[in-house]
Design brief:
Length: 418
């Protein structure tokens, strides 16, 4: 039951570096927003985290050190509600496949980003998912396609399509996992080192000489142009001054691919340290994962859902370096970040002030923001989305998340042709 590339990699990597790729997060700054120190992961998924963290620790010498230790990795992930995240993305966990994945991780060789077989089967579609050729949801709705399918969504239609296989046309379909769509719209297998390439997707190693890699803290970005060849990313101690990619969890520090620092190692920024530590006063300092800090104390900024958030009445201000907890901005006061106004308010970027979020039935006639899953109706009240057949102005007015522009009524989103 393949759930698709994004879901599979979310499970496999647990999004350790660029967590925003497949889902939202942050502590929201809304009066704490963290989970404190209470574990919210248990049962089989807790066993998966343990197996993954032991794998990461065992393979640190080859893949780079992502965490201070296996225990540090477990602590970091054990308070994040992964199952809720997967459900919000429209997936369910196959318990049998999860147990097989755990066993595979305990003996797997050190290889990334390849998925150990059973681990690619863990996330499956929700029961009753749509079949091939059927509509699969609207704007901001989770995908609802069945096994081996993905949801192709356009502004005015959606359809479940089967992934294209090797040598198949990809002009209107996505390629299957571990394939890429070439310039002629045909799915191809990535090439070995030395093979021609124009992007990193075209290489098994994920590295192409036509692409320049730049590092910013814990993140790296790639820009490609022209023709190149596939190559093996640089290992620890090799140079990265010419835009070369470093292997997996290594970072480019002073022009050399380097292991991330652990507690006490020297650093110039958080990106030089393992994921359960930050850079303080020129040295990596391990933090207590999923704890809460008071105003004026250090927090984890945009990665707060994996790190340290703030107590009630405070938010993590990552507009300063390093990020620190700051008091919530009061209603009506100027604001610059969406999280600084608290859990029951938001920053109105049009007016630049904090506004209270209006519950269902409340007035939004003057542009006040409505709470989630409601919209501001024509009569100026925050209202629940309407059923098919009801009058509408925009997609957010409808339960289906589709407002038929021809008749201005809510309807099921049409099936895309082709």
């Amino acid at each position: 039951m393949r759930a698709g590339r994004c879901a599979a990699l979310t499970l496999w990597l647990l999004v350790p570096v660029a967590a925003g790729a497949c889902g939202g997060g942050g502590n929201g700054g809304g009066g704490g927003g963290g989970n404190g120190t209470d574990d919210v992961v248990d049962g089989d998924f807790a066993e998966f985290i343990e197996a993954y963290c032991e794998f990461s620790d065992r393979c640190a010498g080859e893949l780079g050190r992502a965490f201070s230790s296996a225990d540090g990795c477990i602590d970091l992930y054990s308070c994040f509600p992964f199952e809720e995240l997967f459900q919000s993305l429209g997936f369910v966990i196959d318990e049998v496949a999860l147990a097989a994945c755990v066993e595979e991780l305990r003996t797997a060789g050190c290889r990334l980003p390849a998925l150990p077989g059973p681990c690619s089967e863990v996330l499956g579609p929700v029961p009753g998912a749509a079949g091939e050729g059927e509509a699969c949801g609207g704007f901001l709705q989770p995908p609802t396609c069945g096994e081996g399918l993905y949801c192709h969504f356009e502004s005015d239609c959606s359809v479940c399509r089967r992934y294209a296989g090797e040598d198949e046309d990809c002009s209107v379909r996505n390629c299957d996992e571990d394939l890429f769509c070439d310039a002629t719209d045909v799915c191809r297998a990535p090439g070995a080192d030395g093979q021609p390439c124009q992007s990193t997707d075209e290489c098994r190693s994920g590295a192409c000489t036509a692409c320049e890699v730049t590092y910013s803290g814990a993140f790296r970005s790639t820009s490609c142009s022209g023709d190149g060849t596939c190559y093996e990313p640089a290992s620890a101690g090799q140079p990265c001054t010419g835009g070369e990619a470093c292997s997996e969890f290594l970072v480019c520090s002073e022009g050399v691919c380097s292991m991330r620092g652990v507690d006490g190692d020297g650093c110039t920024g958080d990106g030089d340290c393992v994921l359960d530590a930050w850079c303080t006063g020129g040295a990596c300092e391990r933090f207590e994962p999923c704890s809460e800090q008071s105003p004026g104390e250090r927090c984890s900024g945009s990665l707060a859902f994996f790190g340290v958030s703030c107590t009630e009445g405070a938010y993590c201000d990552d507009g300063v370096d390093p990020p620190v907890c700051a008091p919530i901005t009061p209603l009506g006061a100027p604001c610059e970040e969406w999280g600084e106004c608290g859990a029951d308010a938001t920053c109105d970027f049009g007016g630049g002030v904090c506004l209270a979020i209006v519950p269902e039935g409340g007035s939004c006639a003057d542009g006040e923001p409505c709470e989630d899953d409601t919209f501001c109706s024509a009569d100026g009240l925050c209202t629940s989305p309407q059923p098919d057949g009801a009058a509408c102005i925009g997609d957010e007015d409808c339960e289906s998340r589709y407002c038929d522009p021809t008749d201005a009524v809510c309807a099921e989103i049409p099936v895309c042709p082709g």
